């Protein structure tokens, strides 16, 4: 039996331990039996952000007048079907959550449940399984940036994205460690080069290219490319005297 089959089977088994089933002693009063439990809609999708992979889940608000709280549970088949509550709230109007504590290349299952004031189940969703993209799912682009002879502009060139999902290519920069900013946006079809004017008094500029799809998910990116800007006001002899000064 393949490992994926074992994981899927163990995930289903884990889910049955979360939710009561018909005919069990723990099912409780009639309003706790599955036939009387409201079914919630749940949709989860994995995304890649600048901070790493996340899973965003959205669900329908429980309509049961007995509902007083909502919990979103995550099952990790890779860690002995570890079950954890990643979100809980008494605000029933809040119907989405982004789970940032996920790992690239892993598979998870999510279930959303609503409980009453006594903690008894009044609504639940079916299990929603999600695969978080691994590092190999994001294309690595080649980026090369170099300072021009006059030190007034930086020329950057990058490889063309090959992902069929590519929609927007963005050239970013961070000047002297400040918050990064958009330099320019391009279509995947090109161009694949840009000449960026050096900001006044800049000493170091870090560039990066990021490719996103229609929903804004990252499908390609380059490694950071740093360019040092020499101080045009300080000549070699002046700089030597500066370094030698006490």
Structure description:
It is a single chain. The protein is mainly beta and 246 residues long. It folds into 2 domains: 3-134, Sandwich (Immunoglobulin-like), CATH 2.60.40.10; 138-228, Immunoglobulins (Immunoglobulin-like, Sandwich), CATH 2.60.40.10. Helix content is 10%, strand content 44%. The chain has 2 helices and 18 strands. The chain has helices at residues 3-18, 236-244, and strands spanning 38-40, 42-49, 52-59, 69-76, 82-89, 96-99, 107-115, 121-125, 128-131, 139-141, 143-147, 153-158, 168-175, 181-186, 193-197, 204-212, 218-222, 225-228. Residues 1-33 and 234-246 have low confidence and may be disordered.
- Largest sheet geometry: 6 strands, mixed
Q: Any idea what the CATH architecture of the largest domain is? A: Sandwich
For the record, the CATH class of the largest domain is: Mainly Beta
What fraction of residues sit in β-strands? Answer: 35-45%
Work out the helicity level. Answer: 10-25%
Order of SSEs: HEEEEEEEEEEEEEEEEEEH
- What's the structural domain tally? 2
Overall 3D shape: elongated
Alpha-beta content class: mainly beta
Mean pLDDT across all residues, rounded?
Answer: 81
CATH topology of the largest domain: Immunoglobulin-like
Q: Mind telling me the CATH superfamily name of the largest domain?
A: Immunoglobulins
Low-confidence stretches: 1-33, 234-246
- The N- to C-terminal Cα distance equals 73 Å
